[in-house]
UniProtKB/TrEMBL annotation:
Keyword Protein biosynthesis: no
Gene3D superfamilies hit by this protein: 1.20.80.30, ATP-grasp fold, A domain (3.30.1490.20), ATP-grasp fold, B domain (3.30.470.20), Phosphoenolpyruvate-binding domains (3.20.20.60), Phosphohistidine domain (3.50.30.10), Pyruvate Phosphate Dikinase, domain 2 (1.10.189.10)
Swiss-Prot/TrEMBL keywords: ATP-binding, Kinase, Magnesium, Metal-binding, Nucleotide-binding, Pyruvate, Transferase
One Pfam assignment: PEP-utilizers
Record protein name field: Pyruvate, phosphate dikinase
InterPro entries from the UniProt entry: ATP_grasp_subdomain_1, PEP-util_enz_mobile_dom, PEP_util_AS, PEP_util_C, PEP_util_CS, Phosphohistidine_dom_sf, PPDK_AMP/ATP-bd, Pyruvate_phosphate_dikinase
Taxonomic path: Bacteria, Bacillati, Bacillota, Clostridia, Peptostreptococcales
Residues that hold substrate according to the record: 559, 615, 743, 764-767
Catalytic activity: pyruvate + phosphate + ATP = phosphoenolpyruvate + AMP + diphosphate + H(+)
Amino acid sequence: KKFVYDFNEGTAEMKSLLGGKGANLGEMTKIGLPVPGGFTVTTEACNEYYVRGAKLWDELKEEIFNHLAELEGKTGKKLGDLDNPLLVSVRSGSVFSMPGMMDTILNLGLNDKSVVGMANATDNKRFAYDSYRRFIQMFGDVVLEIPKYKFDTILHRRKNDKGIEHDTELTWEDLRDISELYKEVVRKEKNIEFPQDTREQLLMATEAVFKSWNNPRAIIYRRLNDIPNHLGTAVNIQSMVFGNMGDTCGTGVAFTRNPSTGENLLYGEFLLNAQGEDVVAGIRTPKPIAELDRLMPEAYQQFVDVCNLLEKHYRDMQDIEFTIENKNLYVLQTRNGKRTAAAAINIAVEMVEEGLITKEEAIMRVEPNQLDQLLHPTFDSEQLAKSTLLTKGLPASSGAASGKAYFTPEDVVHANSLGEKAILLRTDTSPEDLEGMVACQGILTARGGMTSHAAVVARGMGKCCIVGAGEIRIDEESKTFTINGRVYNEGHAISLDGNTGDVYDGEIPTKSPELIGNFEVLMAWADEIRKLKIRTNADTPKDTKQAIIFGAEGIGLCRTEHMFFEESRIAVVRQMILSRNVEERKDALEQLLPMQRQDFIEIFREMGSRPVTVRLLDPPLHEFLPHEEEDIVKLAKKMNISVSQLKNVVAELKEVNPMLGHRGCRLAVTYPEIYEMQVRAILEAAIILKEEENLTVIPEIMVPLVGQLTELKYIKNLMIKTANEVIQEKGVKIDYLIGTMIEVPRAAITADEIAEEAEFFSFGTNDLTQMTFGFSRDDAGRFIGEYVEKNILEKDPFQRLDRAGVGKLIKIAADLGKQTRPNIKLGICGEHGGDPSSIEFCHQLGLDYVSCSPFRVPIARLAAAQAAL
Ligand code: PEP
Ligand code: MG
């Protein structure tokens, strides 16, 4: 089996074998771009490495060395040569790009002898030793796992001793001494001499890349992004070109369009006399790419042409790494650039307008879950104007974030666990900060450019991020930060505007987002294509309003119990629950009736002619019981009974398994008055709207937790009786539907019977998942994580619908339901209604609609369109 491919054997289609980077290097070689030569060890080799107990095997080594020999032939240089040595970079490259997650080694092939050869060949001692010290540090860090700071300290000390600020001011002697000191670090830390055998270096580095596939950062990143663990990474070995040979050299990273906003302008940065790491590590703040035009106009023009060519070739925004060696441009990497949701939308829509892609492609280009970033509040501009501007940085990732300042990822995670909102402040970030970056509201760094690690990772996560705010001094030791001489302590509240780069004092209020501009355009395209209707789960007029702004076409689930939790109502609800007889209960229900009726009037009015499904009371009654002594005393007084009597009643209502207990339609079997009141409130509201506002509402009344036909029949009877009473009393005819949730497995498999009485089904996949797996919705979180880690479950089934089990029940129920009632209306209203994968499944089953929380409505619209393509 072939495990190694030369770049000229690869193409963009070979991504799963060669990884993204390897495939694109192949593709760029094929189309004739200036790519330094090299070869790729495949992802299959990585998997094989693990199968063989994490060991490199002889045939692989031989294959690598054969390709090396070929590369040596082409470049006319030899690895480890004493006169003109070949140096290579070794970089990981998985199928999905994982920025900052995997490791890179540059300048491999240097040792005590070849460094002299290199100095002679280039007539540049400084450059040779600069390359050597970088190599020792990278190899020490990535392969030998020696903490980076052990090396950094040495470099900083030398700069301090000499009173200089920039690495570039170090002389070749400094760099030679530093290399020696670095080797000393290796000796002390690892008890070995720094490896001098250059072929050994190459194998060790290859193995380190394989190993880095399973480092904790990579694992976290894969988990966050749903990237399967079995893909493995490829290893790219490429001959080095040098950006650090002097001032006619440089290196940089650029996006063909702005990855934060999507603006169609070349966007990036570079450093003169530097190697790749310097740009992305955020250690030196680089210059904007436009300045390259001034410094090296020919190289710049060549680069602009390459960018245009690559964007046309890949028909997507590219993220390109380049190096200029003695004014010659080389392209080291290209990939589809990571971008914020705002940029993804703008780029997709504009590329359609430019004729580069179709509408359908545009729809597929935007990840539905990513839209979440745009559906959160933004700062209110009036409030912004009143706020105090502390400082400014580069707007690396859009959004609005407020929180308290913390200086380490650990402190952010801790603050987060206490329910605090935190902003992570760092001088610059490194991959070790990932957990803190996940847990915080926003990220602010003092150093680094738009392509620094913090910026790239934040954009990937859709997290608000400002980088390179140069006026800030951060002191991790004393837990303070200083801006223009003023000192702020840990916990000081600040706000970040990721769209402008402005940092403000204190927390700033936000306002609700809207769908405007290109977002609206893309949504309109999605609406043309999708087959599923999108409804929302909303219980209040406010949620309803928001859902309509986001494009909801109806309410799929109005949970009436949520209306009871409000301060002024809970006392009456408690009185109802704790009533000792029907009279007392009816008295409480009479107080609740007008409140419910008013709720429905407002929601129906907000929804206009759109359909609304109201679900009758569902939750276990104990959720409403008073637990605080103070509440019990108050309630006892109100109910005119003693505190101890009331406590007894509360104790009697306690259940061992409330989720499987006295809830849903079971409540109505024991206390029919509750549903009678609710049906009355719904129909009276509809009648009032018809009479007074000429609005025709056809309420869809839904019964929860039905398991058998007889249960539904019993309840439906009493509902119809009440409905008839109301209609008769008011003398106004109102149409309504009666349907049921399908959320008990028994209901799903007897759906043909249930459909005799139900005019619609709504799949309550929260309970259906709970009861199908026998996993408690409330407690399973404690162990599901471990199921996922151990690959027993691919994903938490409460988040993504389990197609094989729960999904099969849905399919059975949908088919059986249609057998009995061919035009039965089918929808889903569990949390899965807002999950793109689950939406795809609902589309495949031919359901009529999905219903999700208001803030997921746009996500669902897009996901439904993608499912239909
Ligand atoms: C469900 O069970 O899926 C559902 C929508 O109802 P609830 O979450 O209110 O139990
Ligand atoms: Mg339920």
